[in-house]
Amino acid sequence: MSAAAQLCLQCGLCCNGVLFSDVELRAGDKATQLTSLGLDIFRKGRKQAFTQPCKCLERDLCSIYANRPMQCRAFECTQLRLVDQGAKPLSAAERKIREAKRLAGEVAQLCRDLGHGDETVPLNRRYAAIMSEPMDLAGDERGVELRGELMLAVGKLVEVLERDFLRAAVKE
Question: 68: which of 41, 151, 152, 158 is 20 to 30 A away, CA to CA?
């Protein structure tokens, strides 16, 4: 099994609303076909896009893999590129995936604890909704504490995602 198959089957971060909140269609993508396969296409300025988590993601597997959009075909996270370049062993990339998924799970749990548990909404949008709500500093001590924990957890998650999944792959 290729590194891509092994890593991607364990991960799903590029499809589950953790790395991205939406995916823009590219030239060559057939919006009507993608809609018929289950994606909800919407206008994003002059472009078309679909939201994350992807409705075609089932247990970290793409149910439309052979027909997936061009952006999905083209994306390779830093971990995958480093393994493909031979700059990182597969086991080290698997550890990074586990760490990112653990951190994303902590953020998701804090969002649920704060009343934003809709898993069909990307994680960054749930966080933004929570942070835009007024906060009662005098009356809701637990809510204030949870929001503080959430801010710290999001900071850690963003650091890991930017460093280990979204930056250009370079030899480490």
Answer: 158
